[in-house]
Amino acid sequence: MPLGPYPPELLTTAQMARADRLTIESGVAGMALMEKAAAAIAAAATAFLVKTAGRRVLVLCGPGNNGGDGYVAARILRSQRFKVRVAALTPPDTLHGDARLAATSWDGRVEDAATCDFKGVDLVIDALFGTGLARDLDGPTAELILRLNAWREETKQKIIAIDIPSGVDGTSGAIRGVAVQADSTVTFFRLKCGHLLLPGRLRCGTISCAHIGIRSNVLEKIQPQTFVNEPAAWRDALRLPSVEGHKYARGHAVVISGGASHTGAARLSALAALRGGAGLVTLATPQEAFAVNAPALTAVMLRVADGPAGLSALLEDKRKNVVALGPGLGVGEASCALVETALAPSPERRAVVLDADALTSFALAPDRLREAIRAAPGPVVLTPHGGEFARLFHGQRWERTISGAPISKLERTRDAARDIGAIVIFKGPDTVVAAPDGRASILAEASPWLATAGSGDVLTGIVAGLLAQGMEPFAAASCAVWMHAAAADDFGAGLIADDIIDRLPAAWRRLVSIQP
Ligand SMILES: NC(=O)C1=CN([C@@H]2O[C@H](COP(=O)(O)OP(=O)(O)OC[C@H]3O[C@@H](n4cnc5c(N)ncnc54)[C@H](O)[C@@H]3O)[C@@H](O)[C@H]2O)[C@@H](O)CC1
Ligand SMILES: Nc1ncnc2c1ncn2[C@@H]1O[C@H](COP(=O)(O)OP(=O)(O)O)[C@@H](O)[C@H]1O
Ligand SMILES: [K+]
């Protein structure tokens, strides 16, 4: 995971605007923030130009404060003797507030961005739109961005975006019409959700976050609920084995196997639960699959449990504190009944992890699952991929709000968690974890090699393993997603699901080395 670490909180564009406002109200001049923002951009540009021995910079400025940052950066770069051109979407004398002040600090020529050329340019700074982008881009602005992206493609020259590539929605990561393809993005104070959510993340290039004089105590008023999924967000909730501990102190997870011809998935989950740190893991198998499972297990224990009655009998052992089911389970009423048994009210606060077929089985009856989760005494974690999410939460099909703003994967996950009353891990390249109380995390980066059969089954097991140890459920779900990605990162190219399990100790070592 080469990106980050980033500051922990992620903001919406509205929250970022509030952070700016609160800072300005506290007595810091808007222009002072802009000078610092521009200095960070100029430093990034200089580093790039020195590396490539480039001298000619084109700054594209928009109508708001993002454009303002651009004018100031242009001035700083010219003072460093780079050859700087500025091209603007609107004439500088039509700007307002700090942007106008910033534009007047540039005493060079201002070209019309609609017709400007990129001849001989070594680097473009994209200062068209930042967090104030309010609607889809079209007309000459859209044409300019398409021309800019084509120039980058053709010449292999680079683009640095100020705050966010223009056209990317900072809150949702959606592309509003068209968007700049940047090589590097310098944002301020905190990342915005749209920097990590797809497709926005793919437009940012490398992301860095500069401090511009906004104090972190503004966050006490803003109360962000979304976090970068990095150890800083949950490391202090992690349970490590204690010197006087024993295996039962680390919990006992039960994973339910499918029938004789579908046993591999649950075995992956079971072994991952053990590597995830559960003290004991039992694979509960139907009798018909016993002979298939038995020779394939060593540290994972095996018990026969046929149907709901068999599972109930197994769960009479109160020390079995987590049940995970779904991988290879089969879709249908039999699986619904097993899920309901796992979730059934009992004096213990047993945790339940539902994945794959355990979710799809309720596609036609999500209310039935909602009821069972409501009655469940312990925490419940659902781990859908895109298809499973769509099947289970098909009511949430709207892509935009009435005002036209895109609804993000983050908001859909948060709504789903609230609606169903469980922690939801919405998997994919930008995995989002959301809790019913509104907290959410987004993974900054994961190896695309994770898109391999059985990889999700491993994640299910890691979640179960962490829950077995009594880790707080939202933290456990986020930590599992991070460990899964860290293990894949450690292995590198050519990974299959079994390799993720083998590399979990490397993820543990990284975590153990970080002080809470
Ligand atoms: N004082 C501040 O508030 C600071 C702001 N900063 C910079 O300011 C940016 C935010 O500034 P603004 O809020 O002015 O917003 P932007 O500069 O991102 O854009 C807002 C302007 O674009 C117009 N606009 C929005 N969507 C459009 C569309 N689709 N087509 C055409 N025009 C459109 C709006 O009417 C407005 O004029 C940040 O991204 C950051 O770069 C930084 O300098 C730090 C300090
Ligand atoms: N392109 C990708 N980049 C990074 N991670 C991915 C990508 N595609 C899938 N993943 C991750 O791989 C896992 C796949 O899970 P899932 O779709 O359930 O697979 P399976 O059912 O085969 O186990 C999830 O953790 C998901 O987040
Ligand atoms: K920009």
Automatic annotation (TrEMBL):
Positions annotated to bind K(+): 66, 126, 166
Isomerase in keyword set: yes
Cofactor note: Binds 1 potassium ion per subunit.
Cofactor(s) listed in the protein's UniProt record: K(+); Mg(2+)
Reactions catalysed: (6S)-NADHX + ADP = AMP + phosphate + NADH + H(+); (6R)-NADHX = (6S)-NADHX; (6R)-NADPHX = (6S)-NADPHX; (6S)-NADPHX + ADP = AMP + phosphate + NADPH + H(+)
Keyword Isomerase: yes
Record-listed (6S)-NADPHX binding positions: 65-69, 130-136, 163, 265, 328, 385, 457
HAMAP family: NADHX_dehydratase, NADHX_epimerase
Free-text function comment from the UniProt entry: Bifunctional enzyme that catalyzes the epimerization of the S- and R-forms of NAD(P)HX and the dehydration of the S-form of NAD(P)HX at the expense of ADP, which is converted to AMP. This allows the repair of both epimers of NAD(P)HX, a damaged form of NAD(P)H that is a result of enzymatic or heat-dependent hydration. Catalyzes the dehydration of the S-form of NAD(P)HX at the expense of ADP, which is converted to AMP. Together with NAD(P)HX epimerase, which catalyzes the epimerization of the S- and R-forms, the enzyme allows the repair of both epimers of NAD(P)HX, a damaged form of NAD(P)H that is a result of enzymatic or heat-dependent hydration.
Protein name stated in the entry: Bifunctional NAD(P)H-hydrate repair enzyme
Gene for this chain: nnrE
